[in-house]
Amino acid sequence: MPSGWLCRRLRVPPRPxxxxxxxxxxVRDASQRKTDTIARLDGDADVWVATASAGRPHLVxxxxxxxxxxxxxxxxxxxxTARNAAxxxxxxxxxxxxxxVTIIEAAxxxxxxxxxxxxxxxxxxxxxxxxxxxEDMPHVYLVAAPRTMHAWNSLAEINGRTIMRxxxxxxx
Amino acid sequence: MPSGWLCRRLRVPPRPxxxxxxxxxxVRDASQRKTDTIARLDGDADVWVATASAGRPHLVxxxxxxxxxxxxxxxxxxxxTARNAAxxxxxxxxxxxxxxVTIIEAAxxxxxxxxxxxxxxxxxxxxxxxxxxxEDMPHVYLVAAPRTMHAWNSLAEINGRTIMRxxxxxxx
Lengths: 172, 172
Description:
The structure is a homodimer.
Chain A: H1 3-10, H2 30-43, E1 46-53, E2 56-63, E3 65-66, E4 71-76, H3 80-88, E5 90-97, E6 100-112, H4 118-128, E7 139-152, E8 162-165, E9 168-169
Antiparallel strand pairs in A: 1-2, 1-5, 3-4, 4-7, 5-6, 6-7, 7-8, 8-9
């Protein structure tokens, strides 16, 4: 419950689970949150990417692409992000801002850019304007299949924030 | 090297370590990046907080306070963030946006809000407008001492991005 996150915005003590004071934004249903999330997946320039090794978290912003089923990222092969994701297969992404966010928990497959299938590489290059296969420093793609998604833009939206579970969009 | 992060902004393939094309922003020295970072620590409403358990990363936005030496966060005691930070003692924070960021690696001490020293509690309540000691659900403070900071707002600022090392600000 990210009540600590919203307290400053609300200027009142948050009441977890209680009615919201002073907020006038409409609470979105799951269908709208899914629509808004896909719009960000299709259009945002970058995403926050968290990985981990033995209790040690790593966090960087990366450009992203979306092929309709996978978030595609690229980073140097020797980066902590690449190494962590390759070892654990798990990444967590934050799309949007702290005030309008979708948190995505995803299973990540890490592959050398030089060995990736063309559709992955083309999707990434088309979206970002950059082809990491052309870099001298070896890069990898992280191809991330979302498993869970939580989307919220206010305390009122904490309930109903799960819009994907086990890789399936939740019904509206 | 977050070259993948910047490629879309630049609209040209990034050249890690090479001169920047088309950017007109001045490259800040360490002193300016420190000043800008402290301004964010003093004024921003929230921060991205990454923690981990084994190889599983967790990522949430939280409100923050800054007492001049520690970032102070608050979250329910049973949250993944609280449990991860208590177990590993390590957190990573992203302050700002993906285009103007300070990444902070910090040692975190986790304490029940009810047991925290008054200066900690007062600092947090004054900054955020919320006192978690008044919540029915038990909360904890995460009191985070920065160890390493990296600040950059462009590819040109990748060099010189370390502005704190081993808890000490780097010289300008």
